[in-house]
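#structure-requests
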Amino acid sequence: MANSAVQAIEQSRAQSISRNVALVVGAALLMDILGRFSVPLPFSPIPLTMANFGVLLIALTIGSRRAAAAMLLYLAQGAAGMPVFSPVGPGGIAQLIGPTGGYLLSYPAAAFFAGWMAEHGRNSWSRLSVAAILGEVIVFFGGITWLMTIAHVPFRQAANWGFYPFAFAEIIKIMAAVAGSVRLHRSSKLASLLA
């Protein structure tokens, strides 16, 4: 009887690991797709992209550790030269050290903290909205700080390039990510997958 209990525990652990790997890989694949949707802006070195939406949706839906792991996998794919970053940039490592590098490199931290906030409490609109806003603050802090560093410009110029043109779109992305996450959490299939 003890042997069957050990086998059941081991089987449960293996299923849990498989489920977590599938969620991380699936989330990274979603980022691969969303990262390619971008629009270059003539007045900024930073394109308008759907990747930030992906970071938020993934963090609010699958939680902190899995979301951060998915973002690390996404960055590793891009650094290896896979075409997962915005096609506006040079791709590969050059994209990570270029103007968009600060945004990209902040994705794991943004996903972790937004996901942590979302998973510690009830999945209400207000809680998820605050978590998504926190994620956006982390992404834009990383992006603007990086722009200031590599372009040797003051905060005002970095914000003109890397924040103000995107503010309205980011509000829409936050609302869409929260709505999508709430809807996904209400799905019985996802609830059993995340359990």
